[in-house]
Design goal:
Blueprint lengths: L17 E2 L9 H7 L9 H18 L5 E5 L3 H12 L5 E6 L2 H12 L3 E6 L8 H10 L5 E5 L1 E2 L4 E2 L2 H10 L3 E5 L11 H4 L3 E3 L13 E5 L1 H8 L12 H8 L12 H17 L1 H21 L15 E5 L6 H12 L1 E2 L1 E2 L8 E5 L7 H17 L8 H15 L1
Parallel strand pairs: 1-12, 3-4, 3-5, 5-8, 8-9
Antiparallel strand pairs: 2-10, 6-7, 9-10, 11-14, 13-14
Length: 402
């Protein structure tokens, strides 16, 4: 007899949630509907046409004219690995800025490529220190690449990508930029910065289904990859092979593309273009200001200083005496709201409230603050119901007058 699981038909139902953690974010109805379009072949002329539109929309999101701009079939981690396996050769020195969890993943990638990671450490919650990076370049002038996280998801810190890219150019190095949490939420200006490789994720400020990594490469990277004396250590992520699938004139089979997910990304990027990048950045900033006003009333402090704080990823210290897991569990089970826990050294010390993409809406800010007030009061925290929500509304009113 064949083994079969004992599962009641239709037993699983998806709960309704407000996704206000570090990702994924809420997905709009129009993007969900795009996922349900009929699947067609990935070499179908109609699909090829959609791919060209998708590349153009991504160029808009990244603010670049880079020909090699496309979505990697995999999450942001795949985009990260694609950059390193194509841009780092054995023995290369790579300066890696580490101010959170994801900088450390960059170090792992350098080492697995056989490169030498020159680590520039900063305190978690602080932006990358430009002076430290310049000192590293002075000490290692033969460094081939500078890698850094633009928006550190584990802390909510935003680093100065423009200045870091300019520094790398001054020393003749290429750049790898992690924009997983920043693309669509704050300015990402690939051409203005002179960035060489930027990767992101579909599930953050783009509010698409998880599993795709938008990426863009400069002509300098393409030239380096095409001139490599040896193959990339990864077959699946080898840019030389993918050029034949995502190139301007060719469509050579490489792998089975995630057709329906690409439909969804196309729709999410179309929504971003219709809203306008500057309007999207302003919306994220507006909702952040309202959330910040409400948290201030609750006497909850931010991890990151205001000058380098991400509006779409709010890292806040857990007030003394409160149980991290109990609060997050109550938010989820009683109010249907997901907020994120701290990672690494900040585990159990902070919460991360995401207002990314379609999740960055007035009703979500209000719902989050109301639920947080309710849960904190039930845990014996000294605050008055309604004050945080009132402060958020006051913030919106002041913004509309300015």
């Amino acid at each position: 007899m064949l083994l079969a699981p004992e599962i009641t038909p239709n037993a699983y139902t998806t709960p309704l949630r407000r996704l206000l953690g570090p990702g994924p974010s809420d997905i709009s109805t129009r993007v969900l509907q795009a996922l349900a379009k009929p699947t067609i072949g990935y070499l179908d002329p109609s699909f090829v046409g959609m791919m060209e539109e998708l590349k153009a929309l991504l160029r808009y999101a990244f603010q670049t004219k880079n020909a090699l701009t496309f979505p990697v079939s995999g999450p942001g981690s795949a985009g990260m690995e694609m950059c390193f396996v194509n841009m780092v050769d054995r023995g290369d020195k790579v300066i890696v800025c580490r101010n959170g969890v994801f900088g450390n993943r960059m170090v792992e990638n350098v080492e697995r490529c056989g490169g030498q990671a020159i680590i520039v450490d900063d305190v978690w919650g602080q932006a990358v220190d430009l002076n430290k990076v310049e000192e590293a370049f002075k000490q290692y002038p033969d460094a081939k690449v500078l890698a850094f996280v633009h928006a550190e998801t584990s802390t909510g810190a935003l680093s100065d990508a423009r200045a870091l890219c300019a520094l790398a150019q001054r020393y003749g190095a290429l750049t790898i930029v992690d924009a997983v949490t920043s693309l669509g939420g704050v300015p990402v200006l690939a051409d203005e910065w002179g960035a060489d490789a930027i990767y992101s994720g579909s599930q953050k400020c783009l509010s698409c289904t998880p599993g795709l990594s938008p990426i863009t490469f400069s002509d300098r990277v393409v030239a380096k990859v095409q001139a490599r004396p040896q193959k990339s250590q990864s077959w699946f992520l080898d840019l030389n092979l993918l050029l034949g699938y995502w190139g301007e004139t060719t469509r050579t089979y490489h792998h089975t593309a995630p057709t329906n997910s690409l439909y969804a990304l196309h729709e999410a990027l179309l929504a971003l273009q219709q809203e306008g990048l500057e309007q999207a950045w302003a919306r994220h900033k507006s909702n952040h200001e309202a959330l910040k006003a409400g948290l201030a009333v609750l006497d909850i402090r931010y991890v990151v200083e205001e000058t380098s704080r991400l509006p779409q990823l709010n890292s806040i210290y857990i007030p003394q005496g409160l149980d991290d897991k109990l609060v997050r569990t109550a938010m989820l089970q009683e109010h249907g709201i997901e907020i994120g826990a701290g990672l690494g050294a900040l585990a159990g010390k902070i919460w991360r409230i995401g207002l990314m993409g379609y999740s960055s809406r007035v009703e979500n800010v209000v719902a989050c603050l109301a639920a947080l007030e309710s849960v904190l009061i039930s845990q014996g925290y000294a605050c008055q119901a309604g004050q945080a929500v009132a402060a958020a509304y006051q913030s919106y009113a002041q913004q509309s007058l300015s």
